[in-house]
Amino acid sequence: MFIMRIKKSIQEKRKQWSWAEDIHPDDINDSHISQTFFLEHPRCKPLSNHRSCRNNPFCLSGLGEQRWLQNNIFPVKDSELEIREINSFCGLKNLGATCYINSLLQLWFHNLQVRNAILKWNPMEDETEKHNPTLFIENGYEPTTSVGQLQLIFALMLKGKQKTINPEAFIKSLKIDTTIEQDAEEFSNLLLTTLENKFNEQTNISVRKMVENNLLGGYQSIITCLTCKTESASHSTFRHLSLSIEGHQTLNDSLKDYFKAELLAGDDQYYCDQCQGKQNATRKMYLNKLPEVFSFQLMRFVYNKKSMQKIKLNSFIRFPQTLDMTQYLSLPKKHNATSRKNYKYNLYAVLIHKGSSANCGHYVAQIKDNATKQWYQFNDDKVEKLTIKGFNLCTDDELNKFKSMKNFKNSKEELQSTDAYMLVYLKDIKTKNQKTKSISCKLSPRLTQLVNTCNTNFENKILEGKQGKIFEQQILSLMNDIKNNCVNEVGDIISVQWLKYLMKVNPNETVKKIDNYAILCKHNLLDPEKVSSVKYIGSDLADKLYGLFQGGPRLKLMSSLCKVCVRNKCARMYTKILILNQNESIATILDNWSQTDNTNSKNRETSYWVGNETIKYWHKKYFESFKTFLNTSDVLPNMTLPINYETLSAECEPYSSLCKQIKVSEDMKQENVHVAIDAENMIKLGYNNNCSGESDTEAKWKDNSLLNTNFDEALNNNCYAYLQNMNNTEHIRPWRFNSDIICKHGNMTIEKDSKKLVPKEVIDIFQTYFPKVSWFDKSTLPCHMCKNIEFQVRIYKCIRILLAKIENYIFIDLLWNSERDVFSIQHSPYACISPEFLETFRNFVRTPLEGPVPIMIKNKILLCNDHNKLLYHPMLSLSPTEYDYNKLVFVTKKEWNLLLKCFEVDFGIFVNFNDQNLFTFSKPEVCETCRQKKMQEDKMNELKYINVEIFIKVDDSEDQNGNCLKKFKQNPSMSVNSINSSNIASTSMNNNNIVTLSKFTRSEQKRLPRVESVMISFYETVLELKLKIMKVFNVFPVNQCLKTTEGIELQNDDATMEELNILPQSVILVQFNEEKIHKSKVITTQETGFKGTELMRF
Fold first, then answer.
1. Where are the transmembrane segments (predicted)?
2. pLDDT in tens, 605-635
3. CB atoms within 10 A of CB 897
4. CA–CA distance from 895 to each of 827, 833, 857, 892, 992 (Å)?
């Protein structure tokens, strides 16, 4: 559907400008203007469904008016804005599937002891709420905990003005999904547990002991051995009793079944301590503590073994309004008759589950007001009075169903229900106390202010609702005016975007002013490109809209049509077709024309050089400039098309004066010959001196006349990059004709493949668009300066390559560690150079055209600044396990003399060995103090790393646990020993030998250690490392035991890598305590019930 709309929009666009491709801007007439601005479109009937004319400016349909006409403006529900009547109860809003929460909130609220305990809860004594910053803001308290939100709900149910209260904040604080229906009994039990734990911090004993004093009961289970008659008793507490109703018709039947004696026999035999063995026994339960509020859950949801599903029992059950629990008590032998009154309960609430299924349904609460003895049904936001009809509690609607029923007196005062799920009784004495003290506790000042704020906000919403009604009437009046809309020559133009916005505005929102700026062109008239974004309306409707909402600018229909923009658009399309046709003509001419046609004939027309990129893209560049020109300028009447490029760009060619014929003089040719001869002599001189060992090589090298400033740049940098930079023309802005064959000197480029000869016929076409361009005819020679530089660069490329080959020949042993002698006293002293210089030297020999040429041996970096002594120990620099390893490179006397002839040296360092090939002394001597200081600094710097690699090695070579782990992928340039950071140093004099690759057989490869790499930073802890290991090996951190290769165990999970001196590329050994580790995906089960909510914290 969306693609079809796009296609239709494109078709409308083409139809709008179909006339402009063949019409010159000076030939535009009124019919073209009418077609452009859709003035010939049909007048549609307003507010009718016209999908086919979406872009018709006369059609006032599809603006979103249906939501007003069908009264679907989504205002705030009337029930949420209703004020509660005096001495009436309020309802609770259902947020989707929260009826079970609403029912239980009503049940607890109507219990004075529970209500008062929650209202007396002190947020300053709550471990979480006391950190709420709004507690200390005057009149700004907003509770954050679930208890605080529950307290606010109860306060609003008591003192609020709303007829319906929204419990969304309370439910969100519990993190309960409002779209999933849950079990009411489970929610009740979990929330009471939460409240009990939260109330333990309160100093008010009625709050702290609320659950224990009101909802907690106790029972005694007595097991009697049938052999020895020994009795064994155990005690337990409960908040409610779950009673089976299957096969029972009354509550007393279910209670008798619950408390009847149970025979323990067969597999269920009881172990008797007196008999010292299992015996048949009986178990019977007695109540030993009665709660003030007695709750019974009727087990309507049972598991059907045949269908393998949970089903609901819809059988009716009768329950008395007054319940005597004496027979279920473990009473003392002597008790008077008056004490029996303490065991009587009066029914005060029934929780109903409506629906035949166990998986879905609806909860309502039927509660008896103790003050008036009137029964009420709380069905979310609906509160109704109930009437007892026979054995049933009926609403007014349900009473109609029992009209035919004979009215009889219920002598036993029993009720019955097929949907009763929970029965709640109050102790008889407690009920009398509630009757005499039916007044709730006084709200705290903070809570009173919070309720007053909520009431004020509610009153403001009511006021906004009234204002919304007025706005609604205004919009409906406008709908009537739209129906009578009539557009003539004095009509108005208005933005579709604003009209759609108006239709989406809700009644209580402030309407923005009319905004027509989006449909204006640069002349502040209607842009012809925005015709599909406007509507043409009658002046009467426009007067009413501007009178109500102001704004603008107001656009009259015929006088606000921008004809200048129509001319510009026509000129743009006309020019586009023109340049495309002429570009095709140029391509045809070039295909039929050959450069050899006029090579041998002087009578033939002159040909010219034009860049390949220019020929390929000239029409696109010109048209882009033309479009840019139209953004700020206009095509005037009688203006010649095409407009020349200089007018479009408003600039002249900056290099036209340089584009002249250039002839190479004899002096220039002779200069180039001298350059070549000098370069050849320099190469030969350098080679002979290096081979003969003469000391003046460096001086003659420096005296060579070729080393000027430009050549130094070419020598010390990438020659190719220098040559490319020489011909770089990207600094020229904006684009110019033939800019791709003009060098930075303003002459024709020396690159042969970037240009081609074209005939005069093509030039004539180009001159139509670019009349001020200076042309290169076929006799024009390339830039002599670019040729000279290119020649010099080529010479230097050859010099660098030959120099690299010569130095490689001379220093092949030093560079590549071939045929190195063992240290001896005969060859002492040995000179030292830095490994950094040697690596730079190697890089130059490998790639002589990249990077700088090494000039100086900088040995001062090997000395300390304080004493000018050696920072590294020569003998320790040969040991792979020492800090000094690879810090010094030793060279022989012969190599040192050759290095002196080729490079400058800032300081000489020499080392001596004895006849046992051991180090004796050095000049300068080793500075041990600065060496230790340097070692500590480097170690500290080495420990400051970010996201580097370390290796985790499983410390179990036999794979006894059967782990399915990935094999470590060896780096081809790394041996096995290198993984363990234990590369064995060469015994030769040079410690920079390349490590040779070890070759393994297939059986040896199978025995490679199981190693994985992880990325770590110095600030990360051992626990974070274990979590990364868990992602690789699927082993929880608690089952990981880590240690270093030195055997140090990493036991402190809070220690960082820096504190443990873990360096990059280190190896950490890990042992897994699990019996088997499978590298499979972890399967997570979907959370059910109240898992993941705040109710599961306790």
1. none
2. 689 999 999 999 999 999 999 998 998 889 9
3. 13
4. 12, 11, 13, 5, 16
